[in-house]
Specification:
Elements lengths: L15 E5 L4 H12 L3 E6 L2 H13 L3 E6 L5 H15 L4 E4 L15 H29 L3 E5 L14 H21 L5 E7 L14 H10 L8 H12 L10 E4 L8 H16 L1
Parallel strand pairs: 1-2, 1-4, 2-3, 4-5, 5-6, 6-7
Helix pairs in contact: 1-7, 3-4, 4-5, 6-8
The protein binds nicotinamide-adenine-dinucleotide.
């Protein structure tokens, strides 16, 4: 007897997604990736003009998107944004917590209250409030999915690269992901995280514009390049799709192998590449 094979061309067709930090960078890439996979997307960000630009881009490409302007440091804004998305899209199947504050290189002893509070508010508090506000809608969808955007810095320390409130908030987000997966499993909502490594910007100042930086990235990343927003978006699409129906509570690292590279050898190669490039 022949087995019926059905290939889903648009794995998220008919689904409705809410993405924070969607106005630029990885968040914008995720909005576009979800729309390409068939989802209608609420692009949520504090930057109103850029949010509209991403919506226009998706709509011009034949996709469906709506802009939502919100400061997710405010609980009222978070809850209003979920209500607006549900009203605008007719429900909610997917929540992606991607927004993050700009990163300062804060070291211990130079921490401002504002920096600490902003990280905890945007990365942790907002993710929790949005999950709380969205959970009834996600449960009603029958295949609700939450994806939190973490970082490889949640479990390793990039000395002098990121502020420690950033590292700590992302580590908290990983544990929140596992906790939520257990709490929401019974309601049919899956909760996972994607942890990017070094991701290049799609516009403006790029990580790899500087030849010395590029040489270091090529030396330390086993796949020999920085990631792109679309690399992260594809992982998010998979985790939201029915193909991932039995995956929850997981942190999927998307870093070109950076995290499993042999640390000493990679550091030595990066050092040599840096020396060669500057001599
Ligand atoms: N870029 C990387 O190499 C990298 C690596 C690992 C993890 N990440 C994670 O990926 C995500 C996106 O990173 P990115 O580099 O694209 O960041 P980005 O700074 O380019 O974009 C962050 C977005 O969040 C929005 N935002 C900030 N505060 C907000 C608020 N209060 N309310 C609403 N929106 C707000 C910003 O307006 C911006 O559009 C972040 O969670 C980041 O921690 C990035």
């Amino acid at each position: 007897m022949a087995t019926e094979i059905q290939v889903p061309m648009l794995p998220l067709k008919g689904m409705r997604a809410f993405v924070t930090g969607g106005a630029q960078g990885i968040g914008a890439g995720i909005c576009i990736g979800l729309a390409r996979a068939g989802a209608a997307v609420a692009v949520v960000d504090i930057q109103t003009g850029k949010t509209q630009d991403i919506v226009d881009q998706i709509v011009a490409g034949g996709g469906m998107a709506i802009p939502i302007s919100a400061d997710i440091c405010s609980e009222d804004d978070c809850r209003r944004a979920i209500d607006d998305a549900v009203a605008g899209l007719g429900g909610l199947d997917i929540l992606v917590n991607c927004a993050a504050p700009g990163r300062n290189r804060n070291m211990l002893g130079k921490l401002s209250d504002v920096d600490w509070d902003t990280h905890q508010q945007i990365v942790l508090n907002a993710s929790a409030i949005l999950a709380d506000a969205a959970c009834d809608h996600l449960a009603a969808s029958g295949h609700g999915a939450i994806v939190n955007i973490s970082s490889v810095t949640s479990h390793s320390i990039a000395v002098d690269q990121c502020s420690w409130p950033y590292h700590v908030s992302k580590a908290g987000l990983d544990q929140f992901t596992r906790w939520l997966a257990v709490r929401f499993g019974g309601r049919g909502i899956r909760v996972n995280a994607v942890a990017p490594g070094l991701v290049d910007r799609d516009s403006g100042h790029k990580l790899t514009d500087n030849p010395q930086h590029r040489a270091v990235v090529e030396a330390i990343v086993p796949l020999g390049r920085a990631g792109h927003a679309d690399d992260i978006a594809q992982a998010v699409v998979f985790l939201c799709s029915r193909q991932a129906a039995y995956i929850t509570g997981q942190i999927l690292t998307v870093d070109g192998g950076l995290g499993v590279a042999e640390v000493f050898g990679a550091s030595l190669r990066a050092f040599k590449a840096g020396v060669e490039a500057s001599s």
